[in-house]
Amino acid sequence: MGGVSVVVTTYRRAWVLPNLFSALSRQTLLPSEVVVVLKPSGDGSERVIEEWGRELPIRLVVQGCGNVAEAVEMGLKSSSCSYVLFVDDDAVPREDWAEKYVKLFEQYSDAGGVGGITYKAYLRGGGVELVNEEFYPEEATASWPHRRPLPEFEGYCGWISVSGLPGARVCGDPVVPSTNIGGVNMGFRKEAVADCPIGSLYEGSRKCLHYEEFLCYCARIKGFRTYLVKDPSIAPIVYHLAGVESLTRGRGFTHEFWLHYDRVMDYWRLRKLGAKVSLASYLLAMAVLLRSKTIPRALAFLYANASNIKRK
Fold first, then answer.
1. CB 100 within 8 A of CB 116
2. Nearest-angstrom CA–CA distance, 133 and 12
3. Exposed e or buried b for every residue in 104-133, given b needs 16+ CB within 10 A?
4. pLDDT in tens, 176-220
5. Domain 4-241 annotated CATH 3.40.50.2000
6. What radius of gyration, in Å, describes the C-alpha atoms of the chain?
7. pLDDT band at 43, cuts 50/70/90?
8. Can you give the residue ranges of every domain in the chain?
9. Angle formed by the axes of helices 253-272 and 279-289, to 10°?
């Protein structure tokens, strides 16, 4: 198998895909294949993909319906290389992006997954301006009992907690064990996540919040660890367009309802995977979260739990 597969899931982004494809064509380690999972929207993405297929080894996978988690699973199943790297359709990887991922996987033999650094980019003057300002600043979560890590993630700097919510502490090392890696810039050994049922876990989701952490969980129960790389000298780096609407960046009642639906469902998804989640911690976590944006979160809580009871 060997080599590097790059997976890109895309929907309604014909206008920005050339920036990504151009960056991939300039990689110091060229990908063996670029798997593009396209959900057609009539915006001309097919034409852009066909044009860049003359310069890149693009494999087009058409997603007739479904959400981003299902698209990620399709990309994984369609990839044929040992290392599978994910980058968003509105991101620009540095030229050594793929090469740095391979070096990290070779250095950390227990790494099932790795997350790099994401900086901001802006559309200005008809071009893309790259800025060395972190897109996702590192933050610690409150030390509530419901945020303590699952047994599998003891000693991690970012983890999945016994309530299903993510937890984090700030660690000073350049490379830290973590499940808090972003889908805009992450890589996995295919063997660590090839059979992760990410699509079925997120069936019915509109936002697919935290799907990356479930890939990390799948890698962990196979005996692998996942790492976040914070040192820019060794980290794979991408620039992500700021100010662009996305699944998790939005506002309003409906947006918050579906975000919280995923927070509620994380507990049930982990149960399905056999994790030792705590019902008491889950209920405490939900009570804490209901202190703000109460109405959409309360309705999401009721809807998600009613759906699980109905399935049983």
1. yes
2. 26
3. bbeebeebbbbbbbbbbbbbeeeebeeeee
4. 999 999 999 999 999 999 999 999 999 999 999 999 999 999 999
5. no
6. 19
7. very high
8. 4-241, 253-311
9. 170
